[in-house]
């Protein structure tokens, strides 16, 4: 593979996941064991119920909190295994208890501190949303780390919301399995947030006009806007060709006393949830188109795909998956 | 007669007039392989309907009219399947002509019998005429020429003649109407099945002398 930053990469066999990993039962079972049965996984942000549950690749995670103590189990049919639970700020992660392996801080590196800082904005939670995709979870991870489909897939939503010169402003950091991209918001979009801020006095973790996207292997990403709103996302595998994208909007305000303020916050949150849902509804058909297309070229070894300058995070993910599955030579 | 793998068999896709205008296309799926036949600047060509960039199905609809352009990142392909329009090529890919040719769509086989268009996944294998047999091939060709007009849907009656060929079932009321049912190939969704009702060349033929 060439490493020149401005050139595209045509990966060699062994440098990307075999196509069949995107639809076979064998691969799904292997991931269930080696990825979802082992890695640190994002579970959510605790609320008054002190309960968190998640279902990934047929594994059911159940967590509860008593005071500062957190405990939980992973149920796999009859089999019940204890969980190790840890937090990064307000973000709760868990993994099936095991000897060795990275600590949560190591797993999140180098984004632990930043995530903790951003998670202070996990206030005023809105109801979680789940959107079903007829696609393998990895096709959705590829989609979310693809930094250049805005103009074709989101021409009326994201594309106009980011700065017209987004190409020169886009900053991507890659650290192996984890990575981060940030876009400068368009002036109009930043102005919209500024007006919102004037009314809501949002809590801001940074005075920035960015849309940030921080990905944590294997299936978590945190989107933030204007240094204020945070939206944790998790891609839950349901079957080899079905997944659910789960996300939750936090619109952190410091002004929620009067009925009028509450009503404004509510309607703004509803608007933001609707906007985010519209964007996800635009991504769904392309993820599903890839799910349909990939098996159609799997018999042709020369068709390996090609990864441009702003798609490197995807290959990083493939390589992290290969390492996690123990398939790297 | 047709006991090979679906990839090695011919499947009826559409009528030639469905692909007569520039950018008209028809798609299907054979086993796991999505296929597209498309008119590109007057030339009708067939490929795997899968983008070579990152594998999205290019045309999702069973038929329509629109350039052979991938919905994901907008790559568009010429009549040789070569990507010619690559948004952000100078900044993101820097692919020159030779490299683009290596990223051409994978061709599929295309054949015509009269006005009936057939596709096959495999590049090599018997011709459509060989697979159908010369007599059936000639009959289908003649029938498709004798019934060129798309018309009102007709329900085949019991006493009509039935002819079967590949995934096709034809119902013929001689000199009056030909109903052509094209079943979706193995692995393809029902939405890829097609039924057309065809009428003879001139309406006058139906009028008593
Ligand atoms: S997958 Fe077709 S253009 Fe990217
Ligand atoms: Fe998207």
Automatic annotation (TrEMBL), chain A:
Specify the Aromatic-ring-hydroxylating dioxygenase alpha subunit C-terminal domain's residue ranges: 131-326
Which cofactors, by name?
A: Fe cation
Pfam families xref list: Ring_hydroxyl_A
* Entries under InterPro entries matching the protein: Ring_hydroxy_dOase_asu_C_dom, Rng_hydr_dOase-A
Q: Which GO terms describe its molecular function?
A: 2 iron, 2 sulfur cluster binding; iron ion binding
Q: What is this protein called?
A: Aromatic-ring-hydroxylating dioxygenase alpha subunit C-terminal domain-containing protein
State the organism of origin.
Azospirillum lipoferum
UniProtKB/TrEMBL annotation, chain B:
Q: Which UniProt keywords apply?
A: 2Fe-2S, Iron, Iron-sulfur, Metal-binding, Oxidoreductase
InterPro entries given in the database record? Rieske_2Fe-2S, Rieske_2Fe-2S_sf, Rng_hydr_dOase-A
Q: Which residues form the Rieske domain?
A: 11-87
Which domain of life does the protein's organism represent?
Bacteria
Q: Which GO terms describe its molecular function?
A: 2 iron, 2 sulfur cluster binding; metal ion binding; oxidoreductase activity
UniProt-listed Pfam families: Rieske (PF00355)
Q: Which PANTHER family match?
A: CHOLINE MONOOXYGENASE, CHLOROPLASTIC (PTHR43756)
This protein is called what? Rieske 2Fe-2S domain-containing protein
Organism the protein comes from: Azospirillum lipoferum
């Amino acid at each position: 593979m060439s490493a020149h930053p401005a050139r595209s990469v045509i990966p060699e066999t062994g440098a990307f996941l075999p196509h069949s990993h995107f639809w076979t039962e064998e691969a799904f079972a292997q991931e269930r064991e080696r990825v979802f049965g082992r890695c640190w996984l994002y579970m959510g942000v605790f609320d008054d119920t002190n309960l968190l549950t998640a279902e990934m690749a047929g594994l059911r995670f159940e967590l509860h909190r008593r005071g500062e103590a957190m405990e939980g189990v992973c149920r796999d049919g009859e089999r019940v295994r204890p969980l190790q639970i840890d937090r990064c700020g307000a973000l709760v992660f868990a993994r099936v208890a095991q000897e060795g392996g990275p600590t949560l801080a190591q797993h999140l590196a180098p984004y632990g501190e930043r995530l903790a800082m951003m998670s202070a904005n996990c206030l005023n939670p809105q109801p979680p949303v789940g959107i079903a995709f007829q696609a393998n979870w990895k096709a959705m991870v590829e989609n979310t780390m693809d930094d250049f489909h805005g103009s074709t897939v989101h021409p009326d939503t994201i594309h106009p919301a980011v700065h017209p010169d987004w190409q020169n402003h886009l900053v991507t950091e890659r650290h192996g399995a984890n990575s981060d991209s940030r876009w400068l918001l368009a002036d109009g979009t930043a102005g919209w947030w500024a007006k919102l801020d004037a009314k809501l006095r949002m809590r801001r973790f940074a005075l920035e006009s960015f849309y940030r996207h921080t990905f944590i292997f294997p299936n978590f990403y945190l989107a933030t806007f204007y240094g204020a709103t945070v939206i944790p996302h998790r891609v839950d595998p349901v079957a080899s060709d079905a997944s659910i994208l789960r996300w939750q909007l936090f619109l952190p305000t410091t002004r929620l006393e009067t009925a009028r303020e509450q009503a404004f916050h509510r309607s703004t949150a509803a608007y933001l949830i609707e906007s985010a849902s519209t964007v996800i509804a635009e991504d769904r058909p392309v993820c599903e188109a890839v799910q349909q297309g990939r098996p159609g070229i799997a018999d042709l070894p020369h068709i390996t795909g090609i990864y441009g300058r702003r798609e490197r995070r995807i290959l990083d993910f493939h390589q992290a998956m290969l390492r996690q599955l123990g398939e790297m030579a | 007669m047709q006991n090979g793998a679906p990839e090695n068999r011919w499947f009826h896709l559409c009528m030639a007039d469905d692909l007569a205008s520039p950018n008209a296309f028809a798609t299907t799926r054979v086993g796991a392989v999505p296929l597209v036949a498309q008119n590109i600047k007057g030339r009708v060509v067939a490929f795997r309907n899968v983008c070579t960039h990152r594998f999205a199905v290019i045309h999702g609809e069973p038929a329509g009219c629109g350039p052979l352009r991938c919905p994901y990142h907008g790559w568009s392909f010429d009549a040789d399947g070569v990507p010619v329009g690559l948004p952000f090529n100078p900044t993101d890919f820097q692919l020159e002509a030779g490299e683009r040719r290596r990223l051409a769509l994978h061709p599929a086989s295309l054949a015509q019998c009269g006005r009936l268009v057939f596709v096959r996944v495999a590049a090599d294998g018997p011709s459509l005429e060989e697979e159908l047999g010369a007599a059936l091939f000639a009959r289908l060709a003649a029938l498709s020429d004798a019934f060129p007009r798309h018309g009102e849907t007709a329900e085949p009656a019991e006493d009509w003649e039935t002819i079967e060929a590949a995934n096709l079932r034809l119902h013929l009321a001689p000199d009056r109407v030909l109903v052509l049912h094209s079943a979706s190939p193995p692995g393809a969704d029902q939405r890829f099945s097609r039924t057309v009702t065809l009428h003879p060349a001139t309406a006058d033929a139906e009028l008593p002398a």
